[in-house]
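Much of the work behind modern protein science is quiet bookkeeping, done one molecule at a time. The protein below has been through that process, and both of its lines are reproduced in full.
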Amino acid sequence: MTPTAARPISVVIADDHPVVREGLQVLLSVQDDMSVAGAAADGAQAVALCEELQPDVLLLDLKLPVLDGIGVLRELARRGAAVRTLVLTSAPEHALVSQAMQAGAAGFLYKDTDPDALIRAVRAVHDGHTLLAPEAARLLVAPRPATAVTGIDALTGREREVLAALADGGSNREIARHLGISEKTVKAHVSSVLAKLGVADRTQAAVVAVRHAAR
């Protein structure tokens, strides 16, 4: 008797960027053991698709319109959905990592994850494992300050080095070469610096650095 082939892992993708959705669909569809059941452009659609299609895995961005990713996780938990959710986001905030895992996410990755690593993560989450990107894991275990510290004083030593190089006009690649770290790490540090300084972009961060140096 010929053995029955294993059923492909059914995946629903939830992301509000069409290019990202389509790219993920292509990546997953060419895997022999995966199939894309559907794709949602907002959180409400994601919940509806999961209820209708009952996929094995939901690939979920946290920053979605209508209902954000944390809301999706909570609503799926409220409905008792069996889907395993792998968060795939660009948001580096400690609070979001913590909230997502507490709300029922089975994994947390960032959008700059290598495609092969993402495929392995989908399989791991489907198989019942919990998976965290190293950066997300560090955010979860990092000690939280007892009192709120903001501005330059909130930066770590490495973040201060990144800010100084940024103020000199260095690109991520140049900063990485100067500090002997990866561009991915520089990107994470820059995001953290912007968040801690409460500024929107590198130019504003550089202005803060120059003002601080002039004191």
Summary: The chain is about 50% helix and 15% strand. The radius of gyration is 20 Å.
